[in-house]
Amino acid sequence: MEVEMAAMASAIGVSVAVLRFLLCFVATIPVSFVWGLVPGTLTKHVYAAASGAILSYLSFGFSSNLHFLVPMLLSYASMALYRKRCGILTFFIGFGYLIGCHVYYMSGDAWKEGGIDATGALMVLTLKVISCSMNYNDGLLKEDNLWEAQKKNRLLQLPSIIEYFGYCLGCGSHFAGPVFEMKDYLEYTDRKGIWSPSEKGPSPSPYVATLRAIVQAALCMALYLYLVPHYPLSTFTDPVYLEWGFWKRLSYQYMSGFTARWKYYFIWSISEASIIISGFGFSGWTNSSPPKARWDRAKNVDIIGVELATSAVQLPLVWNIQVSTWLRHYVYDRLVQPGKRPGFFQLLATQTVSAVWHGLYPGYIIFFVQSALMIAGSRVLYRWQQAVPLNIVKMILTITNFAYTLLVLNYSCVGFMVLSMHETIASYSSVYYIGTIIPIILILLGKVIKPAKPSRSKARKEQ
Fold first, then answer.
1. I need a labelling partner for 76 at 20 to 30 A (CA). Which of 137, 252, 353, 409 fits?
2. Which of 140, 138, 165, 170 is nearest to 153 (CA)?
3. Is 199 a residue whose pLDDT tops 70?
4. Is the dihedral of CA 412, 414, 418, 421 positive or negative?
5. Which one is catalytic: 45, 174, 329, 358?
6. Of 462, 458, 207, 191, which Cα lies nearest the Cα of 321?
7. CA 313, 318, 320: angle at the middle one, nearest 5?
8. Cα–chain-centroid distance for residue 453?
């Protein structure tokens, strides 16, 4: 068996460890299909917990499940023993343990050298235990003091231990997300809320939506495997790279970022297929006649939205969507004082938490600080764009914001890919730090040129 796996791994250019992970990851689709067929609430929880633990064992070994138990049990204990502060306690416990594992395993280096570890799954688990604890904490507060997301997701009762384990280890999202709420998980397993029988007929079929996600995953992986030999990350420290002209170096940064994103598109498409086929991916009905089923609960990326984003502000809404939503609900919004508007501090703090969640590599920290600058600069362009009365000027500013987003995103993401300080600085300096300087200039100009704020629709308030 090992000989066959070694031959297969060699044929597709990955290590045996990565191949084993990929096989177990793809296996979440049939395993999740069975989860949707399991009768009874208790058996669904048991199946979710057991299948997630077994796939983790096959992927990462026995120690992975021991690592998962630490934040799970400590979080559950904080909810059971100290509800009044369980949210903040779990936040620091979860992130503290995750950071310790990041440091111990040096997961970024392992991936780059063809290895793999359980920290990716632990990252998803950390967000789950924190959101569950914070929502249980919110259950103590008066509804008048809560915003809409808190009202929707708060937990009035402590979930049972088997419900909690099923939620944390559910195989469809355990490896790579998406993150979802405990309340949604409980309603799905209990067949309540949007999953309860209704006048709109039986539960909708998930098969067409699942097939669409699988086909998307296959196309994304094919494109990634085609592109990656042409744009290796090692080129950034190759002497030949420095001999190129400015525009060629800048275009190589774009193509490197473009290539790397297809790997993530593949991963999230598989996760989406896993959640959809279980039935949990159902997110309600459209208002059309006749109504159609929506399957975007597990949607973690809008590929076209990322590649053609006309503003950096749009990126959190189309890239790693569920984690971006988590960061907004459990970091960004909770840092805003009552009666005050969020500002750059909340944005920077949220991006810093995101960086630490990914790992302590300098490339991650630099990338997410860069992201805060990128978004802040894009907001300045957007304000100008909305304030000008002439359509031609508005169009020019829209195109400028699109070009700005394209430039700064692919400049910034090099740090996320190469991880080390040396390689990140080498890449940034090779294009004269253009992706750092332009956002700073825009932010400073935004302090001087302050157009009157136009009336905006609710759809535009995110900007």
1. 353
2. 138
3. no
4. negative
5. 358
6. 462
7. 110
8. 32
CA distance 348 to 353: 9
Q: Encode pLDDT of 240-281 as tens digits.
A: 998 999 999 999 999 999 999 999 999 999 999 999 999 999
Q: What is the pLDDT, as a whole number, of residue 462? A: 44
Decide: 74 and 130 in contact? Cβ < 8 Å: no
Domain boundaries, the chain: 15-195, 302-452
What sign has the CA pseudo-torsion 62, 264, 71, 34? negative
Strands 293-294 and 284-285: antiparallel
Residue whose token pair is 């700064």 = 408
Distances in Å between the Cα of 194 and the Cα atoms of 34, 68, 186, 279 are 20, 30, 12, 11
SS3 for 198? strand
Neighbouring CB atoms inside 10 A of 429's CB total 10
Tokens, residue 104: 């111990």
Do 83 and 138 contact (CB within 8 A), yes or no? no
Residue 189 confidence (pLDDT) above 80: yes
Total residues belonging to the chain: 463
User: CA 9 from chain center: how many Å?
Assistant: 27
17-57 confidence digits (pLDDT tens):
788 888 999 999 999 999 999 999 999 999 999 999 999 99
Q: Alpha-carbon Rg of the chain, whole angstroms?
A: 23
Handedness of CA 42, 43, 44, 48 (dihedral sign): positive
Helix (H) or strand (E) holding 282: none
Q: Are 69 and 126 in contact (CB under 8 A)?
A: no
Peptide bond between residue 316 and the one before it cis (omega within 30 degrees of 0): no
**Contacts of 4 by beta carbon, 8 Å cutoff, 6+ apart:** none
Q: Is 275 within 8 Å of 297 (Cβ atoms)?
A: yes
